[in-house]
Amino acid sequence: MNETGAVVADESQPENSQPENPQPEKGLPEAPEGVRDPWKGLRGIMAATLALEFITFLLALPVVWKFGGGVSSAGFVVVIVLSVLMLVAAFVQRRPWGLGFALGLQGAMILCAFIHPSIGIMGAIFALIWAYILHLRKDIAKRMREGRLYDQLGHPPGHPEGTD
Predict the structure, then answer these.
(1) What sections of the protein cross the membrane (predicted)?
(2) Residue 2 in domain
(3) Range of 78's domain?
(4) Neighbour tally for 138: CB within 10 Å
């Protein structure tokens, strides 16, 4: 306000100017206080997906060995080692490097198409599932930044407290 009481706009920045850093935030946002952590749930989904991959690949090996034209002993060992690493990756999803480890295993399983095409196809199918999980991760981060997660919106009037 000036001396006459009129409101004067700040002339240090033009009205249509953009903030100095228009780039979106990097990294994942933190869950606000009092809100359930959505990252915990997503890490659970990723760990469960890895556990399902472990089971799927181990169950597929005997079938490929017997009916699919066979797999070499070295190929059999490679797929078993990668499968066990998937189970290990399921337990390290809360670590900062856990997601990268899991995605690297997906690439390795796709490369197992050189061992047997059906194993590579299964790896590609699981890679599509991981692409969807990454899409969900991006969407959750966007919603958190915008304050549009369900827990961030609050509860309707009359909602009993403590039943979350």
Answers:
(1) 45-64, 71-92, 104-134
(2) no
(3) 38-144
(4) 11
Q: Does 22 fall in a domain?
A: no
Q: Residue type for 102, please? A: A
Count structural domains, the chain.
1
Rounded-to-integer distance, Cα 162 and Cα 42, Å: 23
pTM to 2 decimals?
A: 0.71
The tokens for 121 are 């196809």
Residues written for the chain: 164
pLDDT tens figures, 65-108: 776 666 777 888 888 999 999 999 999 999 999 999 999 999 99
Confidence of residue 23 (pLDDT cuts 50, 70, 90): very low
Q: Which residue has the higher pLDDT, 14 or 69?
A: 69
Return d(Cα 110, Cα 114) in angstroms, integer.
9
Q: Give me the helix-helix angle, 38-67 and 73-91, nearest 10°.
A: 170
First to last CA, the chain: 47
> What is the number of H-type helices and E-type strands within the chain?
5, 0
Report the run of H or E that residue 54 belongs to, with start and end. Answer: helix 38-67
In a domain, 73, yes or no: yes
